[in-house]
Specification:
The protein folds into 2 domains: about 1-165, no CATH class; about 180-350, no CATH class. About 75% of the residues lie in helices and about 5% in strands. The protein contains 14 helices and 4 strands. It has helices at about 1-35, 50-80, 85-95, 105-125, 130-135, 140-175, 180-195, 200-215, 220-240, 250-260, 270-275, 275-295, 320-340, 345-350; strands at about 40, 45, 300, 315. The strands form 2 sheets. Strands 1-2 form a two-stranded antiparallel ribbon. A two-stranded antiparallel ribbon has the order 3-4. The protein is globular. It is a multi-pass membrane protein. One of its GO terms (molecular function) is protein-phosphocysteine-sugar phosphotransferase activity.
Amino acid sequence: MKNNKIWKDIQKAFNTGVSYMLPSVVVGGILLAIALSTGTATDEGMKITSPFMQNLNDLGAAGFAMMIPLLSGYIVYSLAGKPGIAPGMILGYVANNPIGESQVKTGFLGAMILGVAVGYFVRWCKTWKVPNTIKTIMPILIVPICTVLVLGLIYIYVIAVPIGVFMDWLVEVLGNMQGGNAILLGAIIGAMTAVDMGGPINKTATAFTLALMAEGIYAPNGAHRIAVAIPPLAMGISTFIDRKKYTKDDKDLGISAFFMGLIGITEGAIPFAVKDMKRVLPAIIIGSAVGGALGMMNSVEALVPHGGLIILPVVNGKLWYVLAMLIGVAVSVAILHFTKPNVEEIEEVK
């Protein structure tokens, strides 16, 4: 019974984190979509030439930079109240940016884990018996400093180090596969792209494909750039098709996610994954793996380090680039259709 209560508390915390994060996702996604739609594809990605559009792009990037700290901060708020917001946001920022000797970044998954850890740590801090003179400075001085120091150092020295070692191993494994089974390599790149949507596994796939691009090998990048668009496109289309399976906020976010998919911003699917990880993550991972495999199988090459339909002019194998993306999206949407319950059914279970 106690474990069930803890799990319900964590689920509620994730939903709270998502609800506070949503405006940041929408603002960031829409402004980035508008700005990038005016850009031109170059060897370094999409280049924006208009100063005004560059300013819009910077504002959108700021929205995205705040997204993960807000998620983590309000996960903590749900679990431990106001004293946890600042340390939760600080450690959410830490999770979403490279840190430590190996410069590890764990993205939204790391931020969720840290959010829960901070929440329960702050709860424990609030049980301390302290003199009244110290009690007044607990929430603004002692609790935030203790929390950031203790959990931040544990994250850097205990959690981040093995993740960095794992990422290095993953790059080596992918390097050994290159030139072997193209379909399997494409599927693995696609799955890695979707599994943490901008986190370390996604970034490992990016680093691997960029390294091959430097050697004039563009097919793995094609698989990766097909896959980056599939999670947000799938979530957007799923909210359009299966209206009963999503809340009003989800449907509004689906529009933003759809446009983010068109310009290759995988993070548009993160809020959906946080709220319903056991259904959303398998669906988008499988769909992205299918898209990546189809791209490699048909020798699709993306000549720039960006994704989505926006880079179609600089893709070799345009037809299969689009088809692989659409088929991957269709697979994800179909899985969601058969696995996600209607919102009314979820409310009845509660």
